[in-house]
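Give me the 3D structure for 4-hydroxy-tetrahydrodipicolinate reductase.
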Amino acid sequence: MSEPIRVGVLGARGRMGAQVCKAVDAAGDLELVAMVDAGDWLFSVADAGAQVLVDFTHPDVVMDNVRFAVDQGMHAVVGTTGFTPDRLDTVRTWLADAPQLGVLIAPNFGIGAVLSMRFAQMAARFYESAEVIELHHPGKVDAPSGTAVHTAQLIAAARAEAGLAPPPDATSQSLDGARGADVDGVRVHAVRLAGMVAHQEILLGTEGETLSIRHDSLNRSSFMPGVLLAVRAIRSRPGLTVGLDPLLDL
Ligand SMILES: NC(=O)C1=CN([C@@H]2O[C@H](COP(=O)(O)OP(=O)(O)OC[C@H]3O[C@@H](n4cnc5c(N)ncnc54)[C@H](O)[C@@H]3O)[C@@H](O)[C@H]2O)C=CC1
Ligand SMILES: O=C(O)C1=N[C@H](C(=O)O)C[C@H](O)C1
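Predicted structure for 4-hydroxy-tetrahydrodipicolinate reductase (250 residues):
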């Protein structure tokens, strides 16, 4: 039997990090060698010989963590949000100097969430209107969610490729925020509600019909198959991978 993959987790005491630690610990082919949270000694991950670093921390610190992983010769699987095109380009630049390393950054590790984004991307060109509503637990620090931003970007790109005009909208006066955030011309609405975990509905509409694509993560175990898939795959995927799609053959 081959050696287990040694995994270190950053954000280990957080909602996602704690779940990832449990999932890694329970997997026979993975070994949890380091659990680090804010204020802990970051280099303990390297000292423990981690081969793959998993990051579920905070958008303000994640770039430093990815830089650390690359500098220390570790692959990285990153679920933390806040990745703009500029940030992704910066990671590509770092990886150019470490061509043997892989970094996978995914806005959502839920298989259903990944599928729903793909379905929205496929459907977008057929509809005049498209808006995204994301609903999350009130402990979430960023709005809109990384998933919603990514979904809106995919929809916007599909609409542009199809040559669609901007969605019809006669609003000429409104309260601030009433029409949501504008992500590349697609409106995104963020709800924060006790009892929610992570949910998203993509609404598409045209004359005489609407299509709703909804995904619900009912608990954080929904993200674990995707995280473990990425941990197992990343050592043979040098360079930057954005999203789980290629690992699902999508
Ligand atoms: N890609 C995906 O499928 C998912 C992504 N997320 C994202 O993951 C991130 C974390 O989410 P949650 O676990 O809900 O947040 P959380 O606030 O429960 O956990 C974050 C943890 O990171 C720790 N932390 C902060 N700075 C750190 C540092 N420099 N080094 C080590 N640890 C540090 C915090 O102390 C905290 O324990 C968010 O950006 C969230 O949007 C969340 C769920 C799924
Ligand atoms: O903070 C969360 O909880 C989640 N964050 C990710 C995001 O911002 O898209 C993924 C999922 O929605 C849960």
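The mean pLDDT is 98. Let me know if you want a second pass.
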